[in-house]
Amino acid sequence: MSTVIIEKYVDGIWVEKIQLPAAPLRFLAGLLPDRARHDLRRHGLDVEALLYDASSSSDPHWMDIEEKKVAKRIRISRRD
Hints:
Blueprint: E1 3-10, E2 13-21, H1 22-29, H2 34-42, H3 47-52, E3 61-67, E4 70-79
Antiparallel strand pairs: 1-2, 1-4, 3-4
């Protein structure tokens, strides 16, 4: 079973990890509006490639975000 792994880093230090089954995420991704899909892609996350493309499953996607005025880096990957 494919799993999507989301890891949060602050100042290069790993602080949190979440693992989710890919099947329900595929369903939820289908409900995303095109605008949200476009914004995620603009920020470095290609949802379709992450959830459907087996060849890209080993390549992590990185997003830089700000949460509560603290810069954070998010690593999203898939393990088959």
